[in-house]
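Try this one yourself first.
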């Protein structure tokens, strides 16, 4: 007699994480268009994972339909001519998404920080330019913190967005820390610039002897 598979051992395709992100967004609503998904990703996912292009979203939707995790239909616009394609998660898609959330391995986050790479190569940088780069990054982190704060407040108004709201609050703390860490690094860079600045020599002053 063949044993029934437990939910933890059920077969789930090895999809990229971006597929699960799109499927997860579909799980929040009855139907969403590609435009809706893009708007939702920019509203929330961009702060901690992904800011997709429309082509990326539609590529993932096509993949999800192929696996039977999503369906789509064309809805006529108000003019009765143009059609808008709407996507919905299927029952098997919801089951697969829950399987991934609950049983996928916990992976270490991948940090690809180009600003830190440039600071790491600070011995090649012009001191003033490196300060500008770090100052620009500090401004970016503060802008993202403010945006996440606004979106978290919006999420708090809708009980269905309790978990995204909690993650957005995590994002606020993340960008606060990113800003503070960059400010500390900028202070370290200033100290290094002082230590490594060439000292002016007293030699060579006055008229050179013939």
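Now uncover the answer:
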């Amino acid at each position: 007699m063949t044993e029934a598979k437990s939910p933890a051992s059920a077969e789930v395709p090895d999809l990229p994480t971006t597929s699960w992100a799109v499927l997860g967004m579909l799980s929040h609503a009855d139907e969403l268009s590609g435009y809706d998904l893009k708007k939702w990703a920019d509203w929330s996912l961009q702060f901690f994972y992904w800011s997709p292009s429309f082509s990326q979203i539609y590529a993932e939707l096509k993949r999800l339909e192929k696996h039977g995790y999503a369906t789509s239909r064309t809805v006529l616009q108000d003019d009765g001519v143009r059609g808008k394609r709407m996507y919905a998660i299927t029952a098997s898609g919801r089951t697969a998404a829950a399987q991934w959330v609950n049983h996928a391995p916990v992976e270490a986050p991948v940090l690809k920080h180009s600003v830190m790479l440039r600071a790491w190569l600070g011995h090649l940088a012009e001191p003033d330019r490196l300060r500008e780069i770090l100052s620009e990054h500090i401004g970016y982190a503060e802008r993202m913190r403010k945006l996440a704060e606004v979106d978290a407040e919006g999420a708090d108004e809708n009980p269905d967005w309790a978990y995204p709201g909690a993650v957005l609050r995590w994002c606020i703390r993340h960008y606060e820390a990113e800003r503070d860490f960059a400010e500390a690094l900028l202070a370290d860079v200033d100290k290094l610039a002082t230590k490594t600045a060439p000292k002016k020599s007293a030699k060579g002053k006055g008229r050179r002897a013939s």
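Discussion: The helical segments are 17-26, 34-43, 54-66, 91-103, 114-120, 127-156, 162-196. The beta strands are 32-33, 70-76, 83-89.
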